[in-house]
Amino acid sequence: VIELASVTRVYEMAAESVHALRGVDLEIRAGELVSIIGPSGSGKSTLMNLIGCLDRPTAGTYRLGGTDILGLDDDALARLRNRHIGFVFQSFNLLPRQTARENVALPLRYTGASASERTQRAEEALARVELKDRMEHRPDQLSGGQKQRVAIARALVTKPSLLLADEPTGSLDQSTGREILALFKRLNAEGVTVVIVTHDPAIAAETHRQVHIVDGRIVADERGAG
Amino acid sequence: VIELASVTRVYEMAAESVHALRGVDLEIRAGELVSIIGPSGSGKSTLMNLIGCLDRPTAGTYRLGGTDILGLDDDALARLRNRHIGFVFQSFNLLPRQTARENVALPLRYTGASASERTQRAEEALARVELKDRMEHRPDQLSGGQKQRVAIARALVTKPSLLLADEPTGSLDQSTGREILALFKRLNAEGVTVVIVTHDPAIAAETHRQVHIVDGRIVADERGAG
Ligand SMILES: Nc1ncnc2c1ncn2[C@@H]1O[C@H](COP(=O)(O)OP(=O)(O)OP(=O)(O)O)[C@@H](O)[C@H]1O
Ligand SMILES: Nc1ncnc2c1ncn2[C@@H]1O[C@H](COP(=O)(O)OP(=O)(O)OP(=O)(O)O)[C@@H](O)[C@H]1O
Ligand SMILES: [Mg+2]
Ligand SMILES: [Mg+2]
Fold first, then answer.
1. How far is the CA of B91 from the centre of ligand 4 (A)?
2. For residue B224, what pLDDT band results from cuts at 50, 70 and 90?
3. Whole-angstrom Cα distance, residue B91 to residue A93?
4. How many other β-carbons are positioned within 10 Å of the β-carbon of residue A178?
5. Which of B37, B143, B201 faces A45 most closely, judged by CB atoms?
6. Count H helices, E strands: chain A?
7. Is A103 exposed, middle or buried (0-12, 13-18, 19+ CB in 10 A)?
8. Mind telling me how many Å the CA of B65 is from chain A's nearest CA?
C-alpha cells in the first residue's frame, strides 16, 4: 500500500542544507505491522511525515494505495489523510485550549458525523486508552503520558486503515506501553496497516518487520520476531 | 538536602479536585543518585516541580539545603533555582524562536557571565550532548531526541548542585540514552545530587536508590542496584 522510490528530503536553511532522507526505497503492504528504528536524528519522523502525506519529498516518488501522492493538490491530500490515515505525533500536537474529548473528536468533524456521535466516539476512544476520567482536562492539566494517550486516541477515532505512530510509548510506563502495543496489534489483526517508530527494542521485537534507518538511509530491513 | 514532609498537592478545577500528591515524606541527601518510578499520572512530574521550586505544595513543608522554601518570596525562589538547580523538563520547554545555542545560554544571563563567555559555555554544553552541528537550529528544526538533548544541555550549563531530570531519555535511542546516563553518573561522582524520573527500568537499575510512586503516594523506597 506504501511505495516510496528514491525518496529524498532536504531541509534548506540559510546557512546549510540538511539531507534528512537520502534515496529511500520502501514498500509496505496492506496489513503489515512494521517498526522503524534508528538513532536520534536519523530521519524517522521525516519519513513518517512523508508517508502520512504531511510533507512532500524533495525528490523521488510516493504511491499510497496505488495513488500517486505527488499528483494531488493540498485539498485532495487533506481529504485522503483524514479518511484513511491516523497519525500519532512524536510531540502529540494537541490543541492547548481544547479538552481531551474535544481534541479526540476533532478529526470526526470532516466525516459528517453528528455532534452527539462525535462526542460518543471520542469518549469510547478515550476509554480504550484508560482516560475516561480525564476527558474534561486540557493538555496543560494532563501528565506527559496522558497527553500521549490522548494523541493515540485521536489517531484512532476515525478508524483509519493506516496507523502511523511516531514513538507512541516514549512517555509511558512499561505496563501502559504494553497495553498500547496490545491495542495496536489487535487493530493490525483486524486489517489495519501499522507503522511504529520506536526506540524500545521490546516493542520492535513484537512487530513482524523492523526497518533500520541511519543517517537518512535504510541500512537493514528484517522480518522475523513478532 | 531535600526534605519534604507531609507534602500534598491538589489541583483545583471547576468540576473536580485532583489530589496529585497525598502526604509525601521524602528525604534526599546531598550527592545521592535517585530514580523516581511510577505509572503514568501517578504524580512524578508534580513532585519534581515541587522539589525544583517551580510550584508550591497545597500542604506540608519543604526544606532545601536547610532553607524553608515556603518562607521565600518568588524573587528569592527564582534566584535559588537559577543558582543551584538544573531542570530537564518532560516536555523540554524550549523557546521556539531561539536557536539551540541561545536556548542553552539563557540560564547564564542571571549569573553575570559576559556574552562571549555565555556563548562559549553554551557551545561546550551542546558538544557534551553531541549537538555541536545543530547549534544554529531552532526547536522546530530539530528532531525529538535533539530537542531533549538541548533541554539537558540547558539544565547543565550553570553547573547546578542539584540536577532534576524528568524522563530525560524518553525520546532517545538506547545508545544515546546510555551516553546521557553516563554523563549524569559522572556529574554525580563529582558531587551533584541527581534525581531522575524514568520509565526505563535499565536507567532506574543504574541509580543507587529507587523511589516508587503510585496514585500520589510513595509506596516503596529501595536502595541497592546501581
Ligand atoms: N525543519 C527542519 N529544518 C532543518 N533540519 C531539520 C528540520 N527538521 C528536522 N531536521 C533535521 O533532520 C534530521 C532528521 O530529523 P528527524 O526528526 O526525522 O529525526 P528522527 O529520526 O525522528 O530523530 P529522533 O529519534 O530524535 O526523533 C535531524 O538531524 C534534524 O536536525
Ligand atoms: N494543572 C493540572 N490540573 C489538573 N490536574 C492535573 C494538572 N496537572 C496534572 N494533573 C493531574 O495530576 C496527576 C499527576 O500528574 P503528573 O504530571 O504529576 O503525573 P506523572 O506521574 O508525571 O505522569 P507521566 O508519567 O504520565 O508523566 C495526573 O493524573 C494529571 O491528570
Ligand atoms: Mg523523531
Ligand atoms: Mg510526568
1. 9
2. confident
3. 12
4. 15
5. B143
6. 7, 10
7. buried
8. 28
